[in-house]
Amino acid sequence: MTTYAALLRGINVGGKKKVPMAELREVLEGLGYEDVRTYVQSGNAVFGCRDADEGVLAAEIERGIEERFGFSAACLVVDGARLRAVQEACPYPAEELEGKQLHATFLSEQPDEGRFAAIDREAFLPEEFAVGERVVYLYAPEGLGRSKLAEALFRPAVFKGINATTRNWNTVVKLVEMTR
User: Fold this and answer.
1) For residue 144, which of 113, 170, 168 has the smallest C-alpha distance?
2) Inter-CA distances, 116 with 22, 129, 134, 154, 157, Å
């Protein structure tokens, strides 16, 4: 049995695409997943199942959500080992920062460095980003909502064709704990 985290994108934001967490748990249990738990309202769920392809699991969850709620919601699935690897490889001093200052954008595939070539890193200092293994780390001292670098990073051209969803560092740490 492997423990996975499902990271949904764009639900429960501004009163749109409402997905109550109790109902999300029901959807996941209906798909045959075990020990289903959710974390906060932004679409984080942890579940167990036999080893499976993360892309296949994400597609199953997306279909389940569409059938239950009548709208699509992109989903990334990552196993506990990958979450721990993201935490351990963080190039920023996470233990010294507030959770709102550090974010991880999980990616469905590895982007080539050329996607970031048009971003003038020095123009956004003290904000910074670093590309890891299917993750982009973003250090935004004033938080994501005020980040100019986040605006540049999340332009459609940068992640075109890649499913991406961002979590603050507090959520990353909690999901690591929940998938142990």
Assistant:
1) 168
2) 38, 10, 14, 11, 10
User: Which DSSP state fits 120?
Assistant: -
Amino acid at 128: E
Q: How far apart are CA 38 and CA 8, in angstroms?
A: 11
Global confidence as pTM: 0.93
Beta strands in the chain (DSSP E): 2-8, 34-39, 44-49, 75-79, 102-107, 128-132, 135-139, 164-168
- Can you read off the two tokens belonging to residue 120? 């003038």
Model confidence over 110-143: pLDDT tens digits?
Answer: 999 899 999 999 999 999 999 999 999 999 999 9
C-alpha 117/C-alpha 55 separation (Å) is 28
Strands laid side by side in the 34-39 sheet: 34-39, 44-49, 2-8, 75-79
Give the residue from 77, 43, 80 showing the smallest Cα distance to 57: 77
Give the count of alpha carbons within 13 A of 115, CB side only: 17
Please, which residues bridge with residue 106 across strands?
A: 135, 165
